[in-house]
Structures are given as structure tokens and as C-alpha cells.
Design a protein that fits this description.
Blueprint lengths: L14 H8 L3 H15 L2 E8 L2 E8 L3 E9 L2 E8 L1 H9 L5 H9 L2 E2 L2 E7 L3 H16 L2
Antiparallel strand pairs: 1-2, 2-3, 3-4, 4-6, 5-6
Helix pairs in contact: 2-5, 3-5
Length: 140
């Protein structure tokens, strides 16, 4: 995986910097963001700086984390946390590769749920993201 972008605390990234860093993968990020806003919005986008660098949080209704965007040089990851209901829904969902479900089920369970990081490298990954977001939203 490429190196993480935006490690320094200053400046805080914006849409222009993000598009520049993502490069060719920016179109996949735009497809994800457009889907989330259209199907599950309004979404509040909030940049947070952690010890590893800047991360963009997608918040539904200003409080529910849908996922975290981890910007990389020319690529990006999305990080999710799923509760038991969402994991069960994803086992039955269309559009989620068996390998993704297996990785999620194998993830360590915490009080807030099971974590999953997905490298979004191709159009098929955008479709997987849509299924993941849908399961998360529908299993509140």
C-alpha cells in the first residue's frame, strides 16, 4: 500500500489537497462520497488529526460514524466499525465479497464492534463500499 498522506498537523487538508494527493483514485473517492451523500445524507465530513496523520470522518446525523477515510499517496483506505447486527447482515448481503466478510468475522471484537479496513483500488471496491455503508445504516 502507498504511504499515508497528510502526516503533518498543518495544514489541515481540504477538497483540493485531497484530490491532488489521491490522484487517479480521486474519482473513486468522489463516487463513494456522492453515493453516501445521495443515499444516506446529509453527511457531516470532519477532518481529525491523529498521531498517524489526518483522517476524514463521515458522520451521519452529526454523531454516527459511518467510516473513516485514510488518504494515501495515489490511493485511499476506508476504515469501518461494525456491530453484531451489521456483521450478520453483511453475511447475507449481495455485493460483499466472501473474503471481506471472512476478514470482518475474523477481526477482534471490541465493545464498539469489529473493525475493517478496505483498500479502494477499483470500481468493484466502490460497489463493496456501497454494500458496507448500506448494512451499517440499516442496522442501527
Amino acid at each position: 500500500m502507498p504511504e499515508r498522506a497528510f502526516k503533518d498537523k498543518s495544514p489541515m487538508p481540504d477538497a483540493g489537497l485531497l484530490a491532488e494527493v489521491l490522484g487517479k483514485s480521486a474519482s473513486r473517492w468522489e463516487a463513494v462520497a456522492r453515493f453516501v451523500e445521495t443515499e444516506h445524507g446529509p453527511i457531516q465530513w470532519e477532518w481529525k488529526h491523529y498521531s498517524s496523520g489526518w483522517t476524514l470522518k463521515a458522520l451521519q446525523s452529526k454523531k454516527r460514524n459511518l467510516f473513516f477515510l485514510v488518504p494515501m499517496e495515489g490511493a485511499f483506505q476506508l476504515a469501518f466499525v461494525f456491530g453484531d447486527k451489521a456483521v450478520a447482515a453483511l453475511e447475507k448481503a449481495d455485493g460483499v465479497p466472501a473474503a471481506v466478510v471472512a476478514e470482518l468475522k475474523a477481526a477482534r471484537k471490541y465493545a464498539e464492534g469489529r473493525g475493517l479496513r478496505l483498500d479502494v483500488k477499483a470500481a468493484r471496491d466502490v460497489e463493496t463500499v456501497k454494500a458496507l455503508v448500506k448494512a451499517k445504516v440499516e442496522t442501527r
